[in-house]
Specification:
The complex is a heterodimer.
Chain A (H helix, E strand, L loop, with lengths): L25 E4 L1 H10 L3 H15 L4
Chain B lengths: L2 E2 L8 E3 L6 H6 L3 E3 L5 E2 L7 H12 L12 H15 L7 E4 L12 E4 L4 E5 L6 H21 L10 H19 L13
Parallel strand pairs in B: 1-4, 2-3, 5-7
Antiparallel strand pairs in B: 6-7
Helix pairs in contact in B: 3-4, 4-5
Classes of the chains: A mainly alpha, B alpha/beta.
Chain lengths: ~60, ~190
């Protein structure tokens, strides 16, 4: 028996009725803003080193 | 004497109606300016509130494609993003998305929806693990700041609650990564 398909395509919650109590609901971030803030809190290099080591470990190259 | 302001105002300026919007206006690539008494505004210059409302309406059109349509690399990084989110809230939704530009001056790499508590990551963001992780730290910072304060203003970019929450998230992600928590998600990752 073929797997049942949903009756409706996926509707993200963001398209549903919501209310934050203000005119502001979405907080958008540009690529530059995201990169800048990671540097601002001092974690850009730390996270880069930690994940690069994790990738090496995961690939079995360590 | 009545003067028009269009010849003395920058292209990226909007009229300030409330300092409440200053942060978001800057975020959208504009600056808020006060209008001196005696000046008449041409209708082409928007107010800060109009800019924000237009941006919010544009962002409402975010499109979430099926994961079947993602590149293998984007899917790998989406799973990593979801694993990071799950360490804070197992029910939290993180979507790959095509997000409209927030204004005619800035693209949108990531989005936090305060109405649903969901995070959207643009497909381009998901092409690299670095941009994915940075975006998750940033968006989870919005999420935690909003949950802690219940105040959209305090959850905005680089407000103290947002900076504090981002630092908290980044420190935990850093520690968990060192501890190998995400190793199973990064085998195919591209930093």
């Amino acid at each position: 028996m073929p797997k049942k398909q949903p009756l409706y395509p996926h509707i993200p919650r963001s398209h549903r009725k919501t209310d934050t109590g203000t005119e502001l609901r979405f907080l958008p971030d540009s690529p530059d803003e995201i990169s800048y803030t990671t540097k601002t809190i001092g974690y850009d290099v730390k996270l880069a080193q930690a994940f690069q080591q994790a990738i090496v470990r995961a690939k079995g190259l360590a | 004497m009545v003067m028009t302001i269009s010849n003395v105002i920058a292209e990226n300026a909007v009229i300030r109606t409330s300092p409440r919007w200053d942060g978001m206006v800057k975020h959208l690539g504009y600056v808020s300016v006060d209008v001196p008494a005696g000046y008449v505004l041409p209708p082409t210059i928007a107010t800060d509130r109009q800019l924000v409302v237009r941006s919010q309406e544009a962002l409402r059109k975010v499109n979430v494609p099926s994961v079947r349509h993602l590149t293998q690399r984007a899917l790998t990084h989406l799973k990593l993003a979801r694993a990071i989110a799950a360490s804070y809230d197992p029910k939290m939704k993180v979507h790959a998305a095509i997000i409209p530009p927030a204004s005619d001056r800035v693209r949108t790499a990531g989005l936090y929806d305060m109405g649903t508590g969901e995070i959207m990551l643009h497909l381009e963001t998901l092409e690299k693990a670095r941009t994915t992780v940075d975006a998750m730290v940033h968006e989870l910072g919005h999420h935690i700041a909003f949950l802690r304060t219940s105040d959209p203003l305090k959850a905005e970019d680089l407000q103290p609650a947002h900076s504090e929450a981002m630092t908290y998230v980044a420190s935990r992600v850093f520690r968990d990564t060192i501890d190998g928590e995400y190793d199973q998600y990064v085998k195919e990752a591209v930093w």
